Amino acid sequence: MEYEIIKDGNFDYLEVGEGETLMLCHGLFGALSNFSDLIEKFRHTHKVVVPILPLFDLDILHTSVAGLEKHIAAFIEYKNYTNIHLLGNSLGGHVALVYILKHPERVKSLTLTGSSGLFENAMGDSYPKRGDYEYIKNKTAQTFYDPAMATPALVDEVFEITKNRIKVIKIIALAKSAIRHNLGEELNQIQQPTLLIWGNNDIVTPPFVAEEFKKLIPNSQLHFIDKCGHAPMMEVPAEFNIILEKFLGSLPK
């Protein structure tokens, strides 16, 4: 289903449905398509909000996890969202973690899937190689357990980004920022109920990363999904949605 992006002030975002706010934070190569099944399921029970992170619009000094968190914080303040169910994938999970540590009063629950913030296999300083379609195709396929998930349309989307020199510089800046910005010593401050949904075959943030999040976040539960890589909400949406629905349903109203 096609959704309309709302442009309001300095913010681009999707907002559909009614109910408690379920906010989805996408990753470095993320887009609405990453969350399409999730949006379609939960828009009937929640107000689903997807802020579009300004990955390539911040100046280079603020192209960082902290810079993205400031954007999200300003957006939430502008819209006055409260009691947020905050969900993040990959870099989006990292941004969500920094936000909840700074503004715990606005967040009701946290869900992380393939999140950075503790450890991630970096794409490397040479990534992404400009103009090398096969390289980009292989790297995109590594995100998933099933390489067929890296459809020509998805690979083309990533390839278009990597053809732009400034965007490549910013991707590398964000990847390096995520590695530097380790949250291991702060995660014990998170008191909200936290759901961890992880692919057993994630090679970007491997399963031991999920185990470490589980150990460090006090009120957390961990669900592994077999035959699944770095983006469970894309690769196994039905199973992902069942786990998320059960978790949200268990929380006090």
Counting structural domains, the number is: 1
CATH superfamily: Alpha/Beta hydrolase fold, catalytic domain
Overall form: globular
Kindly report the CATH topology. Answer: Rossmann fold
Secondary-structure-derived class: alpha/beta
Find the count of extended strands (DSSP E, 2+ residues). 8
Widest sheet, order of strands: 1-2-4-3-5-6-7-8
Report the CATH C-level class. Alpha Beta
Segments where pLDDT lies below 50 for 5+ residues? Answer: 123-127
Q: Percentage of helical residues? A: 25-40%
What percentage of the residues does DSSP assign to strands (E)? 15-25%
Q: How does CATH name the architecture?
A: 3-Layer(aba) Sandwich
Radius of gyration: 17 Å
Distance between the termini: 29 Å
SSE succession? EEEHEHEHEHHHEHEHH
Features:
253 residues; alpha/beta; Rossmann fold; 8-stranded mixed β-sheet
Overall description:
This protein is of the alpha/beta class. It has one domain (6-250): Rossmann fold (3-Layer(aba) Sandwich). The chain contains nine helices and eight strands. Strands 1-2-4-3-5-6-7-8 form an eight-stranded mixed β-sheet, with helices on both faces. Strand 7 (194-199), helix 7 (207-216) and strand 8 form a beta-alpha-beta unit. Helix 1 (36-42) crosses helix 9 and helix 2 crosses helix 3. It is globular, with a radius of gyration of 17 Å. The two termini are 29 Å apart.
